Amino acid sequence: MQEKPNVLFFFTDDQRFDTIAALGNPEVKTPNLDELVGNGISFTQAHIPGGTVGAVCMPSRAMLHTGKTLFRLKDDGMTIPTDHVLLGETLQKAGYRTFGTGKWHNGTDSYARSFTDGGEIFFGGMNDHWNVPACDFDPDGQYTEKRKVIHNPYYSNKAAEYTCDHINAGKHSSELFCEAAADWIKEYNGENPFFMYVSFMAPHDPRSMPEQFLDMYDPGDISLPENFMQEHPFDYGVYSIRDEVLASYPRTEDEVRRHIAEYYGMITHLDNELGKVIDSLKEKGAYENTIIIFAGDNGLALGQHGLMGKQSNYEHSVRVPLIFSGPGIPRNEKRDTYAYLLDIYPTICEMLGLSVPASVEGKSLVPAIGDREAKHREILYFAFSEVVRGIKDSRYKLIEYRDGKKAVSQLFDLMKDPGEKENLYEHEEYAEIINRLKADMINYKEKWDDEKHPKGKIFWERYKNGKQA
After folding, report:
1. Separation between Cα atoms, residue 361 and residue 160, nearest integer Å
2. CA distance linking residue 190 with residue 222, whole number of Å
């Protein structure tokens, strides 16, 4: 009989922190996530540090699996060097069978190092949910087969090459991945505990799902965000990023409501599918001995601040859901202490009684799980590419923009203004707070080696030179 619990990790793509009904959103339907919330602990202030590239999910996922901080990744997380010990490697060393299905955005080598088992693996960032270019699991880790796909045949004959050996035509990604996971659980009879990583492509666009889930949401009934804007107050170089061209300028209320309705439909669909994986655990008799973790890789604006994507340091882009449920974890409790996703790796290690590899920089959340008054992190640092840096303390957030043409600064009182609508930067009474936050930002820049990263080097040169490019 196994001594250690299993670990089941659900990871979604572009799911913002405020998209679970049980955590305060009355418009979205998430019955299975609501059950996880009721059975566990929700970290309501979980974050990513941002990203160094437009595809924010790539470094986010690399940080999750290595426990490294943002600027110490290789190639922005596109590849993971062997001295960055992966979570799956650590669990294998402890005797775990490790199963991975779904999206893997960090190279074939790191996937092969992480998992002893798997299926329906998607190597890439985004694709057609209904025709996923997938790979079967290769025990030798040789994912070399390529297939060509024309993404937009009505307007282009350009073919993109993908690492894949098959396409399940007409099966939605959320169903594809969760069926692979549920089937593996049903068939697994090993004596060792298992770690299962189910990585969704949803709710990332193109937001398409079975019609029954879309029909649950009438755009006319969707509330606009309190900080909805037709356009961002100033251009900081993201207007042409693909996330931002998904809706026309200026943003309209009707279009934003439609996008949110589709977003919620995707979330309800993935909630339905992950429920089937949990059901397979229950049928197997393994549910009571399985730690279940749910998180998202980054947030999404969808009309907030006039933005559509996640290439910012606003709350809607850097805050994510994070839930722990299972043996030894308090039920139906919340924690509002600050956390990063890179803290999950050492948390799992401590829960399982394993040593944390020296390469891991995250901090275990176990003390905060056990004590609702515990302070895990009191200051958070954020970045986007070479144009934005941010810092957040228990109340205030400072965001600095340097796009090579201008310098813009924002200060928000998150207690009074959680939607980050009123910029207090020019108010003289906040000068001391601003100076303190700037000092904190400089400290984190040095602590995290931001300036040694190519994007950080550009930002900080601009920062020192004011408006100079």
Report:
1. 36
2. 47
Reading the block at residue 294, the tokens are: 């749910």
Q: Report the distance separating Cα 207 and Cα 261, nearest Å.
A: 10
Residue written as token pair 């000092």: 439
Nearest-angstrom CA–CA distance, 458 and 452: 10
Q: Which residues contact 89 (CB under 8 A, 6 or more apart)?
A: 113, 114
The per-residue pLDDT for range 363-379, each reduced to its tens digit, is 999 999 999 999 999 99
- CATH classification of the domain holding 435: 3.30.1120.10
Q: Distance between CA 254 and CA 249 in Å, rounded? A: 13
Q: Which residues contact 312 (CB under 8 A, 6 or more apart)?
A: 238, 301, 305, 318, 384, 388
**Cβ within 8 Å of residue 318, ≥6 positions away:** 47, 48, 49, 50, 298, 299, 312, 382, 390
- pTM, rounded to two decimals: 0.97
Residue 364 phi/psi, 5° resolution? -60, 140
Which residues are paired to 340 by β-bridges? Answer: 47
Angle between helices 31-39 and 253-284 (to 10 degrees): 60
Domain boundary among 344, 370, 396: 370
pLDDT tens for each residue of 222-275: 999 999 999 999 999 999 999 999 999 999 999 999 999 999 999 999 999 999
Are 386 and 346 in the same domain?
no
Angle between helices 344-352 and 57-66 (to 10 degrees): 30
In three-state secondary structure terms, 134 is strand
Is beta strand 46-47 parallel, antiparallel or unpaired with respect to 339-340?
A: parallel
- Using the CB atoms, write b or e for 306-334: b if 16+ within 10 Å: bbbbbbbbbbbbbbbbbbbbbeebeeeee
Distance between CA atoms of residues 422 and 271, nearest Å: 35
Element (H, E) at 345: helix 344-352
Query: What one-letter code names the amino acid at 54?
Result: G
Specify whether 362 is located in the same domain as 391. no
What is the residue type of 113? R
Q: DSSP assignment, residue 168? A: -
